[in-house]
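worker-03 picked up job from queue 'complexes'. Input manifest follows; two sequence lines, order preserved.
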Amino acid sequence: MSDPTLLVLASLASGEKHGYAIMEDVMRFADVRLGPGTLYGAITRLEQRGWIRPVGATDRRQPYALTAVGRTYLEAQVANLDRVLRTAMERLRHA
Amino acid sequence: MRRLMRFAVGLYPAAWRARYGQEFEALLEDIGPCRRDVWNVVKGALKMQMLTWSSWKLVPALGVAGALIAGVAAFTMHTEYESTCVIGVRQVPEAPGEGPRVAIAQRTADLFTKALSRESLAKIVADERLYPREAEKGTLEDAVARMQRDVRLAAFPPTGGPTAAIMLSFRYPDARTAQHVTGMLMRHAIVENSRWDQASQTPSQVEILDAASMPAEPIFPNRPFMILVGLTAGLLLALAIAGARQLRRGHA
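worker-03 finished. Artifact:
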């Protein structure tokens, strides 16, 4: 899985984070290094769609949090992925 | 690296920089960007520009970009020059039931089978040190095969008069060599013809109508055509993006 928007949403599911923290988190759980251009491309799209929102910043680092709509979207995507994974696992077991 | 990155960040649309600029710079300070990051930021900026540009700005911009890319490619490609010579072949006595076209075709085939034979071309390749890359990488056979592809023959049957014309051309990355080798091939053909004449005891039937030309312009790549293709591709891409945007807006 390397869709940057989904990775950012997954990262924010555990709480609000700023850009650098998202990069580090995604690297840790998905072993994917999001470049700064890719990360902010995803953040821009997600904010425009209303799936994330900026929360109070203490310095120039701007943290973001999932919105309710973003959480619903992420849950739907994860359920989809889960279904695909289960099917694949099931088929591999019987192959 | 910092200056390069500052330049890359400057490629983002002004409105985007006003909204995200400060936090984006903070992120770049945190990660200590490398070359890969600069390229990633440039790509991100171009993508963002395309998303925010209006169609009237996008269409000419992509058109110019396409023409520029094609232009750079056209001017960095290896060029090829073509030299041409024309030989006249007087109509030979026809065999019963044979038309002039058949007679000329037969004469042309006879003339050039020997002049352009593998042995003859191999000698020219070796003597003139043609195709050094092919000769270095492979065998002489590769260079000869390449030369066989680069020599062209076209016969024009007589139209009213007694003389048919045969056009011989050779293309090569260097204009002088192209001219020189075309002249050599022409002389080979004439020598073969005179041998044939001596053997058959008939008067010479071949004359030079146009000596090997010195090509002024390369025939490959066709730069104006390539630039036109790049421009058209850029415009089409821009129109496709504009159309896709309209569709997306319609669905939203």
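worker-03 released lock.
Helices of chain A lie at 4-12, 19-30, 36-49, 68-94.
Strands of chain A lie at 52-54, 64-66.
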